[in-house]
Amino acid sequence: MNEPFQEERMVRLRWACRRTLQVLDRPLGAFLKDCHQKLNLSEQFAFERLLSAKDQDILDWIIGNRESGDAGVRAIVNQIRVHNDRITEGHPNE
To answer: InterPro entries, from UniProt (predicted)?
Structure first.
């Protein structure tokens, strides 16, 4: 991807991580900042599908009340949980 397109995409993703349910801002934003660049293309698309979901659905998936019907989104949710746990424990880059 060319540089301007990638920068624009990251801006759009940062805005998409800002949610009406503010409890989602931290895990989604931190995951984007710390992990997105390491994802393969399929995982990046799954993350974007996750961001297109309703806030309450995302919250339910992250806290484990329900699972997404999309296997890619389920895998990203698991990665977000792991990353959020590391941040909470003070080890974001492990």
So the answer is: SDH (IPR005631), SDH_sf (IPR036714), SdhE_FAD_assembly_factor (IPR050531)
Q: What type of residue sits at position 52? A: S
Q: How far is CA 31 from CA 2, 15, 44, 67, 69, in A?
A: 23, 13, 11, 19, 21
- What is the amino acid identity at position 90? G
Q: Hey, what domains does the chain have and what are their CATH numbers?
A: 3-89 (1.10.150.250)
Local confidence pLDDT in tens for the 94 residues of the chain:
578 778 898 999 999 999 888 999 999 999 999 999 999 999 999 999 999 999 999 999 999 999 999 999 999 999 999 999 998 888 666 5
